[in-house]
């Protein structure tokens, strides 16, 4: 008689299963289907590790369980040994319940004079999120099941109200939030779900789970590329949600091109779908003429690159506050005139903000429109700079008052190309209307990549040829953004003048 299979499951695997049981099965049986970790994901992992290490300094005198991630039995044994030796603060303590779930905890803290412990989970978020309750509830189940008396489940997260002044104050950087009630309540659901997920691991065949919103919530699934391989590039998932999406799927419609013309969608979505279906460019000449009236020459095409680290590096900054380290500026004195390019690039591990402001004010002049794509971002950065450097407030406000948002005519569908496939991002708009310009060939292809490189420069983590190459890539990327705006203004004029 074949021996019945027995399984255990880690906290992270449990969370994967809560999001999608098929993803859990893939994790255990088809690791080759997992998407490769890209730079953005790696940056988030690195940030989480940095936050975790810093959190340990909040509870001084602790000892870390340093067993390899796969050595669960060794980590459990080491945890027990540290407790027997009298340790009251343990980092990465590990436990497993008889139910089969095991977990590490960032900070395992024993109450003074009592045989009770607090579970302290560290996250780089700034508030409690629902998936974190599942996370902490599965942790609690593992430790309670292992025989530990647990008092509180505490979320230790980043305090975005903290403003750095001088040295980093770890006590102010973090907030400890007692989540015991929410976690204990969710623990009952964990007990119900856990046996079902363990059964999934017994199956020889992947579970049947349809694709849907859960593929992206709370995180984009590592196996989405595999499960969505049959989905067209522009599909009903891009244009509808909820009841509307379900209705389309029940009709057997997957490609956005096949959506019936009489199907009710929002005005802008309908315009985008019709454009895609008919392969036709939308041109609303009266609306474009009305928008173009906002332009006053000379034009200053402006784009910022910023870094928003979880751990504030400079005085006067808060966690995740956008710190500008670069701008590109193309200046055009007359309609159709030559472009002059100016730029600012901070290249060292020092505060870039005041130098950035001085250069910006000097180069933006005092007259003419400042054109940005999604100008609310640049306006917001300028407002923060005005608060932090009051002596430049009036001039920064004056720049904001001259700001014109180039996103608006494309977002409103006053000018829209079917190749945009619903997006008004400059990354989609530019190659649609200016085919010889694309971001795909650049070393940096999006703002997230620029921000990550900028953060490394501001933290002094790049040097030598790597630093030079990174600076060159950032200049090329940011410079293309402002050149793109100039090209798109030409496109708008060409349609108005037809």
List the helices and strands and how they pair.
Elements: E1 9-10, H1 11-19, H2 21-29, H3 39-56, E2 63-64, H4 72-84, E3 89-96, E4 101-110, E5 117-122, H5 130-145, E6 150-158, H6 170-173, E7 174-178, H7 180-200, H8 224-227, H9 236-239, H10 242-250, H11 267-278, E8 282-283, H12 285-292, E9 299-307, E10 323-332, E11 339-345, H13 353-363, E12 370-372, H14 375-388, H15 393-401, E13 403-405, H16 407-411, E14 415-416, H17 426-433, H18 447-458, H19 464-496
Parallel strand pairs: 1-4, 2-3, 5-6, 9-12, 12-13
Antiparallel strand pairs: 3-4, 4-5, 6-7, 8-14, 9-10, 10-11
Describe the protein.
This protein is α/β, with parallel strands linked by helices. It has helices at 11-19, 21-29, 39-56, 72-84, 130-145, 170-173, 180-200, 224-227, 236-239, 242-250, 267-278, 285-292, 353-363, 375-388, 393-401, 407-411, 426-433, 447-458, 464-496; strands at residues 9-10, 63-64, 89-96, 101-110, 117-122, 150-158, 174-178, 282-283, 299-307, 323-332, 339-345, 370-372, 403-405, 415-416. Strands 1, 2, 3, 4, 5, 6 and 7 form a seven-stranded mixed β-sheet that branches. Helix 5 links the parallel strand 5 (117-122) and strand 6 (150-158). Helix 1 packs across helix 5 and helix 14 runs antiparallel to helix 15 (393-401).
């Amino acid at each position: 008689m074949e021996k019945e299979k027995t399984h255990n499951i880690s906290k992270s695997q449990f969370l994967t299963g809560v999001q999608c049981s098929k993803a859990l099965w893939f994790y255990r049986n088809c690791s080759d289907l997992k998407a490769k970790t890209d730079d953005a994901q790696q940056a988030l992992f690195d940030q989480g590790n940095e936050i975790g290490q810093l959190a340990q300094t909040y509870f001084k005198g602790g000892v870390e369980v340093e067993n390899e991630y796969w050595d669960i039995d060794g980590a459990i044994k080491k945890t027990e040994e540290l407790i027997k030796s009298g340790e009251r603060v343990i980092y990465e303590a590990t436990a497993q319940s008889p139910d089969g779930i095991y977990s590490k905890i960032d900070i395992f803290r024993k109450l003074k004079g009592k045989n009770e412990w607090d579970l302290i989970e560290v996250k780089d978020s700034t508030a409690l999120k629902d998936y974190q309750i599942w996370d902490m509830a599965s942790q609690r189940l593992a430790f309670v099941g292992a025989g530990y008396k647990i008092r509180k489940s505490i979320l230790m997260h980043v305090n975005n109200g903290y403003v750095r002044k001088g040295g980093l104050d770890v006590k102010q950087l973090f907030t400890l939030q007692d989540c015991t009630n929410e976690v204990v309540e969710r623990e009952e659901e964990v007990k119900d779900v856990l046996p079902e997920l363990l059964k999934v691991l017994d199956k020889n065949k992947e579970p049947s789970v349809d694709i849907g919103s859960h593929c992206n919530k709370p995180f984009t699934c590592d196996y989405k590329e595999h499960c969505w391989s049959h989905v067209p590039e522009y599909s009903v998932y891009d244009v509808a949600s909820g009841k509307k999406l379900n209705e389309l799927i029940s009709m057997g419609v997957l490609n956005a091109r096949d959506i019936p013309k009489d199907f009710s969608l929002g005005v802008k979505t309908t315009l985008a779908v019709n454009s895609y279906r008919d392969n036709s460019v939308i041109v609303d000449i009266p609306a474009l003429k009305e928008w173009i009236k906002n332009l006053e020459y000379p034009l200053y095409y402006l784009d910022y690159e910023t870094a928003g680290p979880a751990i504030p590096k400079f005085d006067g900054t808060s966690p995740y506050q956008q710190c500008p380290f670069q701008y590109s500026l193309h200046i055009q004195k007359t309609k159709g005139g030559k472009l002059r390019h100016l730029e600012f690039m901070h290249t060292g591990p020092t505060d870039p903000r005041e130098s950035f402001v001085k250069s910006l004010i000097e180069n933006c002049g005092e007259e003419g429109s400042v054109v940005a794509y999604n100008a609310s971002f640049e306006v917001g950065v300028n407002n923060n700079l005005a608060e932090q450097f009051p002596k430049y407030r009036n001039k920064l406000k004056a720049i904001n008052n001259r700001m014109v948002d180039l996103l608006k005519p494309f977002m409103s569908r006053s000018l829209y190309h079917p190749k945009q496939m619903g997006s008004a991002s400059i990354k989609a708009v530019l190659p649609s209307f200016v085919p010889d310009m694309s971001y795909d060939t650049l070393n940096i292809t999006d703002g997230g990549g620029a921000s990550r490189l900028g953060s490394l420069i501001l933290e002094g983590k790049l040097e030598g040829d790597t630093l030079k190459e990174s600076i060159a890539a950032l200049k090329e990327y940011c410079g293309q953004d402002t050149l793109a705006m100039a090209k798109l203004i030409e496109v708008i004029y060409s349609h108005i003048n037809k």
